[in-house]
Amino acid sequence: METVTLDDARRVIAAAEAKAEEIGQPMNVAVVDAGGNLVAHVRMDGAWLGSVDISINKAWTARAFDITTKELGENSQPGQDFYGINASNEGKVMIFAGGIPLTRDGQTVGGVGVSGGTGKQDHTVCEAGATAF
User: Which residues form a coiled coil (predicted)?
Assistant: First the structure.
């Protein structure tokens, strides 16, 4: 099975860190493999301690459901098909922006999660990391 390697994760994290520095917001960045297992994580100097777990869970969520956490959040509002999904998996599911599946040859092989700023900042930094993949 194709998956994210440590070299892949380092490349994703480096690109995300560069974007976080560019926008002036320290971030936590996590990368998981095809099985949702943590491959690498970085907490930039000054990034919120409380966002460590959130970044890891965003990466896991993106991989577990093969959807961005932003899209999942939009589809989990009251009246939507996935309302209440954040209560599943022992509360591990993140439903706000900052998680993106990593794909190779049309197959999801991992995920990246970013936390430490606004939803828009998290998603922007996450996109930079995912693009580098």
Answer: none
The rounded distance, in Å, linking the Cα atoms of 3 and 15 is: 19
16, HSE (Cβ side, Cα atoms, 13 Å): 36
Q: 32, 36, 44: which is closest to 5 by C-alpha?
A: 32
CATH superfamily of 6-132: Haem-degrading domain (3.30.450.150)
Domain boundaries, the chain: 6-132
**What's this model's pTM, rounded to 2 decimal places?**
0.96
Helix residue ranges per DSSP H, 3-117: 6-23, 51-65, 69-74
For residues 53 and 5, give the distance between their C-alpha atoms in angstroms, rounded to a whole number. Answer: 21
Give pLDDT tens digits for 43-55.
999 999 999 999 9
CA atoms within 13 A on the CB side of 106: 0
**For residue 1, is pLDDT > 80?**
no
